[in-house]
Specification:
Blueprint lengths: L2 H10 L7 E4 L4 E5 H9 L4 H14 L9 E6 L6 E8 H10 L6 H4 L1
Antiparallel strand pairs: 1-2, 2-4, 3-4
Helix pairs in contact: 2-3
């Protein structure tokens, strides 16, 4: 298992928890989109932010939405597993480029 990708993504977000799942077949991690949105924006309602961003990206013709994979991840609130929008490492980096946030700027460079 390649922990470097996980450590790299985790380090980008100043210790905020980013849920992830390792896909051994594809040899890549899938990261919770809502967690990344929250880490980048500190939005009070990151799920709504993501809904609005999905709509905007789709309207602009972005294919990022096509790469979303829904996986069951443990909720940070109640500990139950729910289907969660996730993206692989490449998708998460594209997402970061799409978020207007001062925290995203270093990664865009």
């Amino acid at each position: 298992m390649d922990n470097n990708k996980l450590e790299t993504i985790s380090n980008l977000f100043e210790g905020k928890e980013i849920r992830s799942i390792w896909d051994g077949t594809k040899e890549d991690y899938y990261f919770s989109v809502v967690d990344v949105i929250y880490a980048l924006t500190d939005s009070k309602i990151p799920k709504r932010y993501w809904t609005d961003l999905k709509r905007k990206l789709t309207d602009e013709g972005s294919q990022l939405y096509d790469n979303i994979v829904q996986l069951k991840m443990k909720s940070q609130k109640d500990g139950k597993k729910y289907l969660t929008d996730t993206l692989d490492t490449k998708g998460i980096l594209r997402l970061i480029e799409s978020v207007p946030s001062p925290k995203a700027e270093p990664f865009k460079l």
